[in-house]
Amino acid sequence: MRHPVLTYIIAMLMLSTLGVYVQEAGLDPVTTVFFRCAIGALALALYCAWKGMLQRENMPPRAFKLAAFSGVLMVVNWVTFFEAIRRIGIAVATIVFHVQPFMVLLLGALVLRERLAANKLAWVALGFGGLALACGVRFDEPMDANYLLGIASTLTGALAYAGVTLTTKSMRGTPPHLTALVHCMTGALLLGAFSTIPSGGLTLAQWGWLGTLGLVPTAMAYVMIYGATPRMETAAIAVLTFIYPAAAVCWDYVVYGHLISGWQVAGFALIVLASLGVNLDWRFTVGKLYSR
Questions:
Q1: To 5 degrees, how large is the angle CA 92–CA 70–CA 245?
Q2: Contact criterion met (CB below 8 Å) for 102 and 274
Q3: Distance between CA atoms of residues 174 and 60, nearest Å
Q4: Is 156 helix (H, G, I), strand (E, B) or coil?
Q5: Of the candidates 179, 188, 241, the residue with the CA atom closest to the CA atom of residue 15
Q6: DSSP notation for 24-78
Q7: Average pLDDT, the chain
Q8: What is the dihedral of CA 97, 103, 107, 110, to 10 degrees?
C-alpha cells in the first residue's frame, strides 16, 4: 500500500457505514453478527491464503488460544454493539463506544497491574465526563428504559473490545489478519446455532446488505487497517481513528434523519480530546500542555 494514511482514512469511512448495514439488514443482532462473521471469515481466509499466511508458525497453539478467547470477546462486542444501534441509533452508539481506550487503561491497571500515570487518569476522568454528555444524561427528566439498555449494551461492547485489545497485545509475531480470521471463525461457530432466519427466508436485498457487511466494513476494512498502521505514526492513527465516529454521525443524519444535540456534540469533543491525551501521552505543567 503506497499511501498508508489514505488507506487508513478509506478504512475508517468503510467502518462508519457499519450501522447502516445493520439497520437495513433488518435481522436480530445475533443473526446479523453470524452472517458478518461467516462472510468475513471466507473473505479473510482467501486473502490470508493468497498472502501465504496460513502457516503453522504464524499461529502457534498459544497464539491460537488467545485469538480464540479474544474472538469470544469480539463476538460479545459485536452483538451488544448491534443491539445498541437498534435501541439508541447509530450516532450515539458509535460515540459512546469510543470510550473503550479509557476502559483499556483501567482494565490494564486492575487486571494486569499496569501503572496508571496521573495525567492519564485525568484524561480518563475527562473522557467519562464527555461520556455523560454524549449519552444525553439529563437531571430534569428520567431516561427511557430502552435508551438506558442501549447505553448499557454499548458500554458492554466497549468493555469487551477493551479485553480484545489487552489480549491481542500479547500475541507478538502473529499477523493481525490471521487474528481477525480466527475472530470471524469463532463468531460463525458460536452463533450459527442461535441464528434465526425469517420464515420466508432472506430477501435479495437482505443478502446484499449482509454480503456487503461481511466484505466492506469487515474483511476489506481489516485488511486495509492492518496493512496501513505499521507504516503510520501513532499520532496520525490517534487522530484519524475519529473519522469513523464522525462519519457515522453523518450517515445517521443523512440516511435516517437522526441529529444529535449540542450537548452530545460537546461530549463527543471531550471524548476525542481525552482519547488523544491518552494515546499521545499529553502532560500538563503550569500554564502549558506538552506531549512526551
A1: 20
A2: yes
A3: 9
A4: helix
A5: 241
A6: HH---HHHHHHHHHHHHHHHHHHHHHHTT---GGGS-HHHHHHHHHHHHHHHHHH
A7: 91
A8: -140
Query: Does residue 171 carry a pLDDT above 80?
Result: yes
Nearest to 106 by CA among 98, 117, 97, 116: 116
Residue with cell 501465504: 52
Distance CA 161, CA 78 (A): 9
Residue 162: closest CA among 226, 98, 247: 98
Q: Is the pLDDT score of 136 beyond 80?
A: no
Write down how long the chain is: 292
Residue the block writes with cell 452483538: 79
User: What per-residue confidence (pLDDT) applies to 244?
Assistant: 95
Give the cell for residue 6: 489514505
476502559: which residue's cell? 103
Give the residues across from 289 on adjacent strands: 284
In one-letter notation, the amino acid at residue 18 is L
**Whole-model pTM?**
0.92
